[in-house]
């Protein structure tokens, strides 16, 4: 498996929507390289015949009755929002206007 | 003052008895705990928020119902009037929920977690919200955005994490009970290093609805207490099916309290996990562990050795699965729906840039590390090698547990490889910090239940050691049955609870217990 470098971290930070300073990228790249190196044995632990477990105690067909359950009022839903306008979440521009 | 001091040292079970007999009132008990918080939490910093008014109102309501008598008094829950603290990862109406993060500073949930609803239904006064590593990511509470919690045994040391606040609150007699969450050991490891009891129930045994998710396939809410019986009592309040959590087990809850009260290990097979002791474990931890084995043997248990060869991959697999799930779960903190919004200093004001600036300012280093690591493990080209492989390791760990439980009814190990280390000691070495959870992680990977109880003090530093018991999925009752026996044998040896040996915290001369060793 490939090692993780500073460019990778910059790309990942962008994907994860976390702005990072140059100093932070350097530090994070160093730390993550050590962590990634320490977990690489995991890829050699199991053969192709071992199935994956995504959930420790799988349950199937977990449904509820198709009726309206508890809902929040608009006021409740907006109560923690950083910005709201006329009963809706207010966001900055979605698109970068050029 | 003396009287209050006695009240706060009673177990939850003893408080419940005295409340039912009307020897004490719920207001007295709640006030005694609030006084204790006021007296010592400046040093311990277990609480992020204290909920005095509401707690006293609930206590007064319980007292009024008891005083009036009749059917309403008869129907009161056994723990009615017994106060509790709640880890600040669990949402509560009427109090802030921060998850230990700046991104949720001052946020109030519009709903209660299911476990909180159940506490309210039982009329247990909620004393407040306890400190934790940010989003439960850590083993020391040092990653809390609001400053670390201090170990009541030695204020210069870590109380474990992520639930160090809940464990320290209980250890420092600031609460008789607390709720924790355990993703890789966050209930059990703090229990071990603070000389308290903590239980991670079977995955799905307690509803996760209203616990802010870190890793959904690993997270589990559970009880934190000073005695095994108290954990059983609390587990009984919060456990059982919840239709609002699709991973909640539909099974009826076993009588865990009866299991704790009728503890018996005669003829039971208790398995030592070869891979979870010995090399890498502190000598004092090994000594106390071996003593516990002797005590259990003396009580009629048969000690067998089991091998779980794939546990050596558990830590690595955990540090792929947990960050992967965390990176996805934490994507919801976008600066739009709740919590912090930070605007970029310059350039175009698009939502993407606002998100980047918000998450940069709102998340701490460990959270960022795990989000980046998870994003990496899930990215195209790496998914099979990382996340896919880690999921296969999960299968291998489950198989190891299945084989071990063919040979033993319950498994036993030290809860953590060391006693509490100094604050700051491992903060800049993420990998060393991760190793604290080496013995607790396998249970989360497999979904099986685990309990940590105090095993005594390590010879070299006089700090608490934790003993971990593990049972097959859905067999949580076995933990209480064995735990209660071991606890009573150990306390007979010590001449009382281990916490009797902890510093008082109100005597200013005793501020740094471990420093004298």
Structure description:
- The complex is a heterodimer of chains A (98) and B (517).
- Chain A has helices at 6-15, 22-39, 42-45, 74-78, and strands at residues 84-85, 88-89.
- In chain A, α1 crosses α2 (22-39).
- Helices cover 38% and strands 4% of the residues of chain A.
- Chain A has a two-stranded antiparallel ribbon.
- Chain B is built from 18 helices and eleven strands.
- In chain B, strands 1-3-2-4-6-5-10-11-9-7-8 form an eleven-stranded mixed β-sheet, sandwiched between helices.
List keywords for this structure.
heterodimer; A: about 100 residues; mainly alpha; two-stranded antiparallel sheet; 2 strands; about 40% helix; B: alpha/beta; Amidase signature (AS) enzymes; about 10% strand
Q: How many separate helices of chain A?
A: 4
What characterizes the major β-sheet of chain B?
A: 11 strands, mixed
CATH class of the domain at 1-45 in chain A: Mainly Alpha
Strand order of the largest sheet of chain B: 1-3-2-4-6-5-10-11-9-7-8
CATH-level-2 architecture of the largest domain in chain B: Alpha-Beta Complex
Radius of gyration of chain B: 22 Å
List SSEs of chain A in N-to-C order: HHHHEE
* Helix coverage percent of chain A: 25-40%
How is the secondary structure organized here?
The complex is a heterodimer of chains A (98) and B (517).
Chain A: H1 6-15, H2 22-39, H3 42-45, H4 74-78, E1 84-85, E2 88-89
Antiparallel strand pairs in A: 1-2
Helix pairs in contact in A: 1-2
Chain B: H1 2-9, H2 12-20, H3 26-44, E1 47-50, H4 52-68, H5 70-74, E2 84-87, H6 114-121, E3 126-130, H7 164-171, E4 177-181, H8 188-194, E5 197-200, E6 221-225, H9 228-238, H10 256-261, E7 269-273, H11 283-298, E8 302-306, H12 314-329, H13 351-362, H14 365-377, H15 384-407, E9 410-414, H16 430-434, H17 441-446, E10 450-457, E11 464-470, H18 476-494
